[in-house]
């Protein structure tokens, strides 16, 4: 079973501050790296799907980078807002085997007003 | 807008009962998935399907079974529920592109077996 590690497990951030967290994954057989945001009582929502080493994607105040050679991705949130409070899941897709994703446990982010 | 639905959202049931968790999507996606999440743990893939009449087991062994008779419908069945089946079950779908396409998730079913 592949291991996807996310850190930190939880994070409290003051409103307006910027923050970032990490996802590490196996660097072999890499195909894609997904980031999802999961708010309480809602469905996980896709933020980014990244496939190329050095890729950087941005959606509003949220951005992500990808290093497939060393097996890590960072998610950045600039100027955190209360609506950013959620669990952020990272998921790895390898090139073979089952077509589903291997998830990390997530980073639980709480934005304090 | 993702349209993937799961029912029921919450289910409390006694040991030994047969249960079916429903999942439907209106996006015409070929690929569908079931994930299981125990409290404090990761989502784990338990079943997936490439299309009608296709079902495969995922990375995590599960006593549940699935069927895919119609593109839009991917129900999960437990023939005889046990307390060890208590978990959250999420259904997802994606367009027919390998890996580099986002999955759309339903809201999940929280199952409690007494």
* Unreliable stretches covering 5 or more consecutive residues of chain B: none
Largest sheet of chain A: 6 strands, mixed
Order of helices and strands of chain A: EEEEEEEEEEE
**Looking at the chains present, what oligomeric state does this protein adopt?**
heterodimer
Shape of chain A: globular
Summarize the model shown.
The complex is a heterodimer of chains A (113) and B (114). Chain A is mostly beta strands and 113 residues long.
Topology of helices and strands:
The complex is a heterodimer of chains A (113) and B (114).
Chain A: E1 5-7, E2 10-14, E3 19-24, E4 30-38, E5 45-50, E6 56-59, E7 62-67, E8 72-77, E9 86-94, E10 102-103, E11 107-112
Parallel strand pairs in A: 2-11
Antiparallel strand pairs in A: 1-3, 3-8, 4-5, 4-9, 6-7, 7-8, 9-10, 9-11
Chain B: E1 4-7, E2 10-13, E3 19-25, E4 31-37, E5 43-49, E6 56-57, E7 65-66, E8 76-78, E9 87-94, E10 104-105, E11 109-113
Parallel strand pairs in B: 2-11
Antiparallel strand pairs in B: 1-3, 3-8, 4-5, 4-9, 5-6, 7-8, 9-10, 9-11
Structural notes for this entry:
The complex is a heterodimer of chains A (113) and B (114). Chain A has 113 residues and is an all-beta fold. Chain A has strands at 5-7, 10-14, 19-24, 30-38, 45-50, 56-59, 62-67, 72-77, 86-94, 102-103, 107-112. In chain A, 0% of the residues lie in helices and 55% in strands. In chain A, strands 2, 4, 5, 9, 10 and 11 form a six-stranded mixed β-sheet that branches. In chain A, strands 1-3-8-7-6 form a five-stranded antiparallel β-sheet, with no helix packed on it. The termini of chain A are far apart. The mean pLDDT of chain A is 93. Helix content of chain B is 0%, strand content 45%. Chain B has no helices and eleven strands. Chain B has strands at residues 4-7, 10-13, 19-25, 31-37, 43-49, 56-57, 65-66, 76-78, 87-94, 104-105, 109-113. In chain B, strands 2, 4, 5, 6, 9, 10 and 11 form a seven-stranded mixed β-sheet that branches. In chain B, a hairpin with a 6-residue loop joins strand 5 and strand 6 (56-57). The radius of gyration of chain B is 13 Å and the shape is globular. Chain B starts with a strand and ends with a strand.
